[in-house]
Amino acid sequence: MSHRTDLLIIGGGQAGLAAAHTARAMGLTPVVLEATRSMTGSWPHYYDSLALFSPARRSALPGRPFPGDPDGYPTRDQVVAYLTNYAAALDADIRTGHRVERIAAPASGGFEVTTTGGERFEAPMVIAATGAFSRPHRPELPGLSSFAGTVLHSCDYRRPEALDGQRVVIVGGGNSAVQIAIELAGHARVSLATRHPLRFMAQRVLGRDMHLWLQWTGLDTAGWARPLLTGGKGAPVFDTGTYRKAIATGNPDRRPMFSRLEGAQVVWADGTREQADTILLATGYRPGVDYLAGLSNALDADGQPRHHGGVSPTHPGLGFVGLEWQRSFASATLRGVGADARHVLSRLRKQAQADAPAGTRR
Ligand SMILES: Cc1cc2nc3c(=O)[nH]c(=O)nc-3n(C[C@H](O)[C@H](O)[C@H](O)COP(=O)(O)OP(=O)(O)OC[C@H]3O[C@@H](n4cnc5c(N)ncnc54)[C@H](O)[C@@H]3O)c2cc1C
Q1: Which atom of ligand 1 is least distant from the CA of 33?
Q2: Torsions phi, psi of 95, nearest 5?
Q3: What pTM was computed for the model?
């Protein structure tokens, strides 16, 4: 037997929660299908010392302010507590322990969603909110697969003590790479290997957090600002000045990307070699949306969602929330998902109304 509703939301992290809250405010009755037993998304799996790069006042989901000092930078555990409370207060049908295995689009219209447990759900609208960061990206680097030391991804990193006394090379120059490198430098000898020099962006300008300026100036959503913000070279590192200072001490240091790994050795771009214990890949993530593979052309040749501002161009009624740069710089962050959920849901609802037989439209 299959369960029918007007909207299915896949994934119960911040993106799914923001979508569910927005849907309820629009009078819809969403069912949220979440694979795990909690409604905190990936947050519990991030490293222990993680502090948000946006202040509490810019880190709230729709309808519930983030508690505490509005100008403070919440910790990972504060985010977990916030999301737990947010989900508990949500007037929506939340089904944890429901991993979506596949989605089909039957000729009769709408979507048919099947979970790994064999349960079936049907709805005219589906929002995929399973995160931009669910698949750790491990680039193919010369010699990496045969490296004789340990290879970790930043998703494996929790705290520095595990790497005490080691020689560690971190690949990547984003926020996580720099935060981990600096924390780890108190316990290990650390280098950041990056293709481009690090790009720091002031965390605060004229006493205000940069996220506020990005919103005020419209740079957040301006398509032309994207290369400015990413420089085509990855996300900038938000810095109050402490990161720059720490790197200037030389541990961690920043070096041009190594040319290869040989045995347990790193061969640097200038030809020098040295032994390393651990290569830590802070090389980002990709969305995990394999469950959409059965929907013809919903994904591109690389298996990534095709969308315009989060709306599928190939399957009316299908949308996304929480993808990187879906509509703005903030799309895959706490402060961005609410606005994107509103945008996507209003588009999907228009599509559903246009498809509904005359007389049944609301
Ligand atoms: C290291 C790191 C630091 C970050 N720091 C910040 C920060 O400071 N500020 C900020 O705003 N953002 C930050 N982000 C970005 C972003 O806010 C987080 O990644 C956040 O967890 C994304 O939320 P989400 O709901 O989109 O995805 P997730 O948190 O990944 O949640 C997706 C949910 O979908 C579920 N799911 C997956 N597949 C299925 C399936 N097939 N069926 C059912 N359920 C499924 C998962 O179990 C999970 O609960 C950071 C990201 C990383 C990786």
Answers
A1: 43
A2: -115, 100
A3: 0.89
Strands 111-115, 7-10: pairing is unpaired
Q: Are 14 and 41 in contact (CB under 8 A)?
A: yes
pLDDT of 203 reads 78
- Give the mean pLDDT of 126-151: 94
Q: Is the CB of 111 under 6 A from ligand 1?
A: no
pLDDT tens digits, 304-343: 999 999 999 999 999 999 998 899 888 989 999 999 999 9
**How many whole angstroms separate alpha carbon 113 and alpha carbon 345?**
19
Q: Which ligand 1 atom sits nearest the alpha carbon of residue 335?
A: 11
Backbone angles phi, psi at 101, to 5 degrees: -100, -40
Asked if residue 131 lies in contact with residue 152, where contact means CB atoms within 8 angstroms, the answer is no
How far apart are the CA of 46 and the centre of ligand 1, in A? 10
Instruction: Kindly tell me the sign of the dihedral angle through the C-alpha atoms of 219, 222, 223, 224.
Output: negative
| Residue 169: strand, helix, or coil | strand
Structure tokens at 68: 């505490």
Residue minimizing CA distance to atom 15 of ligand 1: 333
Of the listed ranges 85-99, 213-227, 269-283, the least confidently predicted one is 213-227
The reply to whether omega before 70 is within 30° of 0 (cis) is no
Three-state SS string over 249-301 comes to: CCCCEEEECCCEEECCEEECCCCCEEECCEEEECCCEECCCHHHCCCCCCECC
